[in-house]
Amino acid sequence: MTESRGVSKRIWIMGASEGIGAALAHEWASQGHRLVLSARSEGPLRSLAEQIGGAEIIPADVADLSSLTTAADQIREGGELDRAVTLAALYDPGKVMAIDTETAGQIVTVNVTGTFNFARTAVPLLRKGGQLALTGSVSGYIGLPQGQIYSATKAGVINLAESLRAELAPDVDVRLISPGFVDTRLTRKNDFKMPAIIEPEEAAKAISKGLDASGFEIHFPRRLTLSLKLLRTMPYWLAMRLTRRLVT
Fold first, then answer.
1. How far is 151 from 138, CA to CA, in rounded Å?
2. What is the rounded CA–CA span in Å between residue 246 and residue 150?
3. Domains assigned to the chain
């Protein structure tokens, strides 16, 4: 499905308070779209809304289904959505055996269960043919060193998006967003060199362009994502031999 440009859309952005979500809000506001901004904290959302010239502010937490239900009731009062996008995620760098179980559980809850909660909440709010976009990651393509539980959760999001695409088409246009390294508060936790890292504004433009075009997955930057896609197509004995070389 190809979205027509020049038509104002009502778009719900979950995880809009910073990073890629905030950059997307700026990008879509500049295109004249009507935005619903959500995140756990209200203050940053209000500041963002002032910067972009106004938006609906509805705080919500993807890990709290009751808060999403309340948000849905408020959104419904304003009419149908054309697009719903979630970028909410938790990240903690390190190796799998080093992460504590409580932190791992929180990451799973937000990244996997939270994405599921958002999808279940957003779909009934969409117009027929509306768009649901879930954010995975290129780290979900294949298990990589220091990807820890985050990579596993993003693999789950990729699988969830594929299932929803099969189940909901053509009534819902399900899309998958797979970013590489983007300079945000989360990636600044990394203590290793991040190849092909880009700014949130560049990521936002790639997402906006991709969601307006046809196709299932929007992945960027391609100088990184295409090499990881190639790695994913290799037999395990070869792919794992190559990934072991990345261990520091």
1. 8
2. 17
3. 10-244 (3.40.50.720)
Is the CA virtual torsion 152, 153, 154, 159 positive or negative? positive
User: What is the side-by-side strand order in the sheet with 34-38?
Assistant: 56-57, 34-38, 10-14, 81-86, 126-135, 172-179, 217-220
- The residues facing 80 across adjacent strands are none
Percent of the chain with pLDDT over 70: 94
Q: How far apart are CA 98 and CA 12, in angstroms?
A: 36
Torsion, Cα 239 174 32 182, to 10 degrees, reads: -20
Respond yes or no: is residue 150 known to be catalytic.
Answer: yes
Dist. CA 110–CA 191, nearest whole Å? 23
Say if residues 125 and 72 touch (Cβ distance below 8 Å): yes
Mark 131-163 as b/e (b = at least 16 C-beta within 10 Å): bbbbbbbbbbbbebebbbbbbbbbbbbbebbbe
Q: Do residues 145 and 95 make contact, with C-beta atoms less than 8 angstroms apart?
A: yes
Residue among 91, 141, 150, 236 flagged as catalytic: 150
| Higher per-residue confidence, 140 vs 246 | 140
With beta carbons less than 8 A apart as the criterion, state whether 60 and 40 touch: yes
Beta bridge partners of 198: 182
Q: What is the rounded average pLDDT of the residues 39-64? A: 97
